[in-house]
Amino acid sequence: MCLFCKIVNKEIPANVILENDEFLAFHDINPKAPVHILVIPKVHIDSFNEVDGSMMQKMTEFIQDVSKEVHINKSGYRVITNIGDNGGQEIKHLHFHVLGGAKLKWEHFSDSDPQGHF
Ligand code: 5GP
Ligand code: ZN
């Protein structure tokens, strides 16, 4: 069972912010911003590559609810999901990083030539 499934099953503790039947939001253990929350589906889905649109519709509303719960909906925030090796996904259970609480940086993500891929 993956790490995030263990958090869903309460085998590993997490600092939960919001949950419903389908989704769970909890603080990232290694925050990269003053507010850094992870939002996951309770069922195991490997990544954004595998999620269907109907779940994303509900996930979107849940993430919006999380942003209100921690009072970053007006100041602004960033939602990120890492996919696969190049995306830097370490935990292979779909999760959205919700980052905020300060003005976030926006920098180059790679030293590679931005035009090089095409
Ligand atoms: P990824 O790199 O897969 O997109 O993000 C995984 C995230 O999970 C990282 O930001 C990391 O800090 C977080 N993380 C790893 N292990 C744990 C844990 O046991 N508990 C919590 N709350 N977060 C974790
Ligand atoms: Zn899982």
What's this entry about, in short?
The protein is α+β, with helices and mostly antiparallel strands. It has a domain at 1-20 and 30-51 and 72-104: 2-Layer Sandwich (HIT family, subunit A), CATH 3.30.428.10.
Secondary structure layout plus pairing:
Elements: H1 3-8, E1 16-19, E2 23-27, E3 35-41, H2 53-69, E4 77-80, H3 84-87, E5 96-100
The structure holds guanosine-5'-monophosphate and zinc ion.
Guanosine-5'-monophosphate is lined by residues 3, 12, 14, 26-30, 38, 82, 88-91.
Task: Outline the structure in words.
- With 118 residues, the chain is an alpha+beta fold.
- The chain has helices at 3-8, 53-69, 84-87; strands spanning 16-19, 23-27, 35-41, 77-80, 96-100.
- The protein has a domain at 1-20 and 30-51 and 72-104: HIT-like (HIT family, subunit A, 2-Layer Sandwich).
- Bound molecules: guanosine-5'-monophosphate (5GP) and zinc ion.
- Zinc ion binds next to helix 1.
Key features?
118 residues; alpha+beta; HIT family, subunit A; 3 helices; binds zinc ion
Q: What's the number of extended β-strand segments? A: 5
Shape: globular
Structural class per helix/strand content?
A: alpha+beta
> What would CATH call the homologous superfamily of the domain at 1-20 and 30-51 and 72-104?
HIT-like
Task: Provide the CATH top-level class of the domain at 1-20 and 30-51 and 72-104.
Answer: Alpha Beta
**Rg computed from alpha carbons, rounded to a whole number of angstroms:** 15 Å
The portion of residues forming beta strands comes to 15-25%
Average of per-residue pLDDT values: 96
Major sheet size, sense and barrel closure = 5 strands, antiparallel
Q: Report how far apart the termini are.
A: 38 Å
Largest sheet, spatial ordering of strands: 1-2-3-5-4
Q: Low-confidence parts lasting 5 or more residues at pLDDT below 50?
A: none
CATH architecture of the domain at 1-20 and 30-51 and 72-104: 2-Layer Sandwich
Percent in helix: 10-25%
Q: What is the N-to-C succession of helices and strands?
A: HEEEHEHE
Bound compounds, each kind once, are: guanosine-5'-monophosphate, zinc ion
Find the CATH topology of the domain at 1-20 and 30-51 and 72-104. Answer: HIT family, subunit A
Number of helices: 3
